[in-house]
Amino acid sequence: MILHGPSLGIGAGFTAVVIVAVFFGMSIAGQEKELVLEEAEISNAPSQEIGLSVFTENGSPYLGDPNAPITLVEFGDYQCFFCNKFFHDTEQKLLENYVDTGKVKIIFKDFTIIGPDSITAAHAAHCSDDQGLFWEYHDMLYNNWSGENNGWASSENLLRMAQDVGLNIDEFTDCMLNEIHTQIISASNADARTLGLTGTPGFFVISPNNQVTKIPGAQPFDVFQKIFDSELEK
Fold first, then answer.
1. Is the model's pTM score more than 0.85?
2. Can you identify the CATH homologous superfamily of domain 5-25+32-233?
């Protein structure tokens, strides 16, 4: 099995969680509030003024209660080895302990860096979203994952998965053929680069008071647990 360099580097190369300080400045009427992000371990890194939309737009619908106090944003690639590892090793525990209990909601955003099938898989998920089945198709993709750039996310297989999920195939096919969601995927990729991501998966935890914690790579459950519990206790 061939692993894509960026996904391997992010998944295995980082063990520490990067804390990112966020401050809301005074906003002019009609303008979006700005987030100022500074990575704590890089003292000489220039600050970036980043709008909240970089985290919350151009992605999936919320998984969980939209009013949950904490938001977990995942940037992923459906072909990514470590994204798949996170899905199978960690995500279900997060759902059971934090999403299903109304404490955390999740947004998935695309960072399609591995190959052409990454883009078609992302497109298929968004076409499923048109029929209200984004997260069902998202799960189907990871449950059928079998490597990177080996054809498992081919158009034929994506169509079969659409049938398995129960989508209207005519609508799904039309959406795929017309590449209806190219813009949202491109915009999500741009958001990932704005946030300095170079590989997948990458996570951002947005707390109730809009502080952001960056979690690089497929960290184990206890890393997320520690951050969530700390924020919920404040």
1. no
2. Glutaredoxin (3.40.30.10)
Q: How far apart are CA 224 and CA 83, in angstroms?
A: 15
CA distances from 171 to 58, 103, 123, 132 (A): 21, 35, 13, 12
Number of C-beta neighbours around residue 43 at 10 A: 7
Strand partners, 180: none
- The residue among 140, 121, 131, 125 whose CA lies nearest residue 168 is 131
DSSP 31: S
Domain ranges of the chain: 5-25+32-233
Residue-wise pLDDT for 175-211, tens only, equals 999 999 999 999 999 999 999 999 999 999 999 988 8
Nearest to 183 by CA among 119, 136, 108, 128: 119
Torsion 217-218-222-224 (CA) sign: positive
CB 69 within 8 A of CB 206: no
